[in-house]
């Protein structure tokens, strides 16, 4: 699809100063064709890429129409979809509702709600002078209930939690352990910057087992068992939460008790009763949420804002709604979508489709301002690419390493690009595993290749 000059110029006008058009300079061709860099790298697998000139034509490309796994570069698509449907200033609201003798913590699907936010909400509630209720309930029906973002991923991976309209700390709990008197002491906390109360609805214990983690879910509790052999030295990690309503209710009960308001044991309700809103908390605006999502690659945020944008009843339907939206942007045939985060191995994009979406709707929506500058510096060291020349979203799964965004050439003109790298057989063999053999070396080599290609273009 050829981009119209009007949409391109509208997009370029939205570019941040660091990527603004250089005045009085004609567009220049890439100095080093990426195919030459690719041939010298010898990275195992398939590498597809596309670089667009400012007029929307392919300036450099290889296998640009090949369907590839997007990994987390799909979050850039989700960001554009959410901005289009909800608007940059949209906020998510968490409410405390009084309904007779019942107090309800009503989740509004806020993807960034934290323990510290709940602590402020508890303070606001206490300040109203509300009497202690006979019942305390938690409602998460603002979004569909999803047990895991990607069921084929390992249960213990913190980036693969449950979804619902009640979200706390990205639906993660912080596990810590240390040896004390010959025994292992473990703690589970709803960790925030200022408040880190204990999570009573989740337990963890050491066990004599071959698997590193095992998980069990009861009616009102989640239980983790961790291989004793992995606990010899002090350590910590985040674990996913599968019962987010009980988790949030438990934490809120503790925070309210600290303010002098005693709440009964939380119960989960399916239907939200009518009542008076006695306290509430609003999230940051959507564009701030998306900026954090794109820089820290939070899967939960991507799935949540995608579900909000579509209004669909399940993630599969939501992904199809986003693909239908892509069709209205002239990009439907370049995307096959199974989710919003890129965690699913069933999604596919083409390098040319991604680049064209970023060059048109992406520039028009101001996407470069939301993307991380110089993203390869995190893995390859400062100066991996020319400072300030690249704003992009990374995407990483086992034996998949992608980069999509904007690169400023020597002429100062920003160009949309997409570089997609995958070793498909090894990806299939290791899907869902945590750091399988060889993946760190392959990923680093893929990122070096991406840096070399970008440096050739700049």
List the helices and strands and how they pair.
Elements lengths: L4 H9 L20 H8 L4 E7 L5 E5 L11 H13 L6 E7 L2 E5 L8 H13 L7 E5 L32 E9 L2 E7 L12 E6 L5 E5 L4 E6 L7 E6 L3 H15 L8 E3 L6 E7 L3 H11 L2 H12 L4 H14 L6 E2 L11 E2 L1 H14 L7 E2 L3 H4 L9 E8 L2 E9 L5 E9 L1 H7 L8 H19 L1
Parallel strand pairs: 4-5, 5-12, 8-10
Antiparallel strand pairs: 1-2, 1-19, 3-4, 3-13, 6-7, 6-11, 9-10, 14-15, 16-17, 17-18, 18-19
Overall geometric form: globular
Beta content comes to: 15-25%
Number of domains: 2
In this structure, how is the largest beta sheet organized?
6 strands, antiparallel
Strand order of the largest sheet: 2-1-19-18-17-16
**SS-based structural class?**
alpha+beta
From the coordinates shown, what is the CATH architecture of the largest domain? 3-Layer(aba) Sandwich
- Distance N terminus to C terminus? 25 Å
* Overall radius of gyration: 24 Å
* Poorly predicted tracts of residues: 1-30
User: What is the name of the CATH class of the largest domain?
Assistant: Alpha Beta
The number of distinct helices, counting runs of at least 4 residues, comes to 12
- CATH domain fold name of the largest domain: Beta-lactamase
Number of strands: 19
Can you give the helix content as a percent range? 25-40%
The CATH superfamily label of the largest domain reads DD-peptidase/beta-lactamase superfamily
The pLDDT mean sits at: 91
């Amino acid at each position: 699809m050829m981009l119209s000059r009007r949409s391109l110029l509208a997009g370029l006008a939205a570019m941040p100063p660091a990527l603004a058009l250089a005045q009085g300079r004609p567009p220049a061709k890439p100095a080093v064709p990426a195919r030459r860099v690719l041939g010298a790298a010898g990275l195992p697998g398939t590498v597809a890429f596309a670089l667009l000139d400012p007029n929307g034509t392919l300036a450099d490309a290889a296998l640009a129409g090949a369907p590839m796994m997007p990994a987390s570069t799909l979050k850039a698509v989700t960001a554009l979809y959410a901005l289009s449907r909800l608007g940059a200033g949209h906020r998510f609201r968490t409410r405390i509702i009084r309904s007779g003798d019942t107090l309800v913590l009503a989740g509004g699907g806020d993807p960034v709600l934290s323990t510290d936010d709940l602590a402020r909400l508890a303070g606001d509630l206490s300040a109203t002078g509300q009497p202690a209720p006979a019942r305390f309930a938690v409602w998460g029906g603002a979004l569909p209930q999803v047990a895991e973002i990607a069921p084929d991923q390992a249960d213990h991976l913190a980036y693969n939690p449950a979804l619902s309209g009640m979200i706390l700390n990205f639906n993660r709990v912080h596990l810590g352990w240390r040896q004390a008197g010959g025994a292992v002491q473990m703690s589970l906390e709803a960790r925030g910057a200022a408040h880190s109360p204990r999570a009573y609805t989740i337990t963890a214990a050491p066990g004599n087992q071959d698997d590193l983690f095992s998980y069990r879910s009861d009616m009102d509790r989640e239980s983790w068992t961790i291989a004793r052999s992995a606990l010899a030295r002090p350590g910590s990690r985040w674990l996913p939460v599968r019962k987010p309503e009980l988790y949030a209710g438990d934490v809120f009960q503790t925070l309210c008790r600290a303010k002098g308001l005693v709440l009964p044991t939380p119960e989960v309700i399916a239907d939200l009763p009518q009542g008076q809103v006695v306290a509430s908390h609003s999230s940051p605006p959507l564009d701030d949420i998306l900026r954090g999502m794109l820089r820290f690659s939070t899967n939960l945020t991507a799935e949540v804002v995608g579900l909000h944008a579509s209004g669909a009843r399940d993630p599969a339907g939501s992904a199809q709604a986003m693909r239908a939206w892509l069709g209205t942007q002239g990009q439907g045939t370049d995307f096959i979508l199974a989710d919003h985060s890129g965690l699913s191995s069933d999604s596919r994009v083409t390098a040319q489709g991604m680049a064209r979406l970023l060059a048109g709707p992406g520039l028009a929506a101001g996407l470069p301002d939301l993307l991380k500058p110089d993203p390869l510096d995190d893995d390859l060291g400062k100066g991996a690419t020319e400072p300030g020349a690249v704003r992009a979203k990374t995407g990483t799964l086992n034996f998949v390493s992608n980069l999509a965004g904007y690169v400023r050439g020597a002429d100062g003109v920003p160009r949309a690009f997409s570089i997609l790298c995958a070793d498909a057989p090894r990806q299939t063999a290791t899907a869902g595993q945590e750091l399988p053999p060889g993946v760190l070396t392959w990923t680093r080599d893929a990122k070096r290749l991406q840096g070399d290609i970008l440096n050739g273009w700049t």
